[in-house]
Design a protein that fits this description.
317 residues, alpha/beta, 2-enoyl-CoA Hydratase, Chain A, domain 1, two-stranded antiparallel sheet, 11 strands, globular
């Protein structure tokens, strides 16, 4: 006599066999070369749109599922490549830098700032930044490279400052019965170590680094926004600003949407019509001005300004 359970198991197995789908995934596939794609407008002139999205870093972000097998193009490398293409194109009459980022590493932010300023110096075309949703800390620093800064009315910006994050796990290790035995060539060689608390002298060194990097950030804001240094110092206590308040304080130039930023670039460039183009890679959806490149950084997407994402130890602006 056939047992009902056996019959059910056989039927279920047949269903699974019949519904199997084969997926062909190339684990070692490298990012494809960028291809120009028109996403809006018409005419001979071009406005190139580039993205600064996610956590800003000078190195490629984490590929959570396949970290070692799947090559990934970092944000800085991507922008370097795209700006180089735009610089060679005689039809490019302006650059739109679309930013949605909580910030990131100081070096990554500064490199992107430099790349945009260098593009402006060589190409001599208008550059406008458009802050979308969240553009704080290093995200705002990058925007300072533009001639003008637009922001959506609901955008959060600001968070001008520097934060150093360190987790001291010495107490936890002691409870677990684990002892730290680290040998160094000098008393400050293991400064920043998570296995021990820093000495007062080491804290003073770190504090000096933070103050020096903060002073550089404040100076860039004052110069690029043409604001008194004392005013910027008052604004740069790490707080965030909604776009209308940022406008009143002189941190941005105008409230508007991406289309408004494009229109402003055409006005500054002296062209009536222009195509908005992006440099897209295979597999990316870039069909309109609100289609973003994939978010880079935290596994959980955007992080709040000053939280430092998931990295336990780094310096960021």
């Amino acid at each position: 006599m056939e047992h009902p359970f056996i019959r059910g198991a056989l039927m279920l197995g047949l269903v699974f066999l019949n519904s199997c789908v084969t997926v062909n995934v190339d684990l070692f596939k490298k990012p494809g070369p960028p291809e120009e794609k028109v996403i809006a407008g018409q005419g001979e002139a071009k406005v190139v749109m580039v993205d600064v999205t996610g956590f800003i870093s000078a190195t490629p972000g984490t590929q959570w599922l396949l970290p070692r097998f799947r090559p990934r193009l970092g944000l800085v490398a991507r922008l370097h490549e795209e700006l180089a293409l735009a610089a060679k194109d005689s039809d490019v009459k302006g650059l739109l830098v679309r930013i949605m980022s909580p910030g990131g590493s100081i070096t990554g932010s500064d490199i992107i700032f430099h790349l945009i300023r260098d593009f402006k110096r060589k190409k001599k075309v208008p550059v406008v930044a458009c802050l979308v949703s969240l553009a704080t800390s290093g995200g705002y620093y990058v925007a300072l490279a533009a001639d003008e800064i637009y922001a959506l009315p609901t955008t959060i910006t600001g968070s001008i400052g520097v934060v150093v994050v360190k987790l001291n796990v010495a107490g936890l290790l002691k409870k677990l019965g684990i002892q730290n035995e680290t040998y160094t060539s000098g008393p400050n060689k293991n400064m920043f170590s998570q296995l021990k608390p820093d000495t007062p002298g080491q804290r003073a060194i770190i504090d000096g680094l933070v103050k020096a990097m903060y002073a550089r950030f404040v100076d860039v804001v004052a110069r690029r926004r043409r604001l008194p240094l004392a005013k910027v110092q008052r604004l740069a206590d790490g707080r965030i600003y909604l776009a209308p308040e940022a406008l009143k304080l002189g941190l941005i130039d105008k409230l508007g949407y991406i289309e408004d930023a494009v229109a402003r670039i055409k006005t500054l460039a002296g062209v009536k019509d222009a195509r908005v183009v992006v440099y897209s890679r295979p597999g990316e959806y870039r069909e309109n001005v609100y289609a973003f490149t994939p978010w880079r950084g935290s596994l959980f997407g955007p992080s709040l300004p000053g939280t430092g994402g998931l990295t336990p130890l780094f310096i960021r602006r």
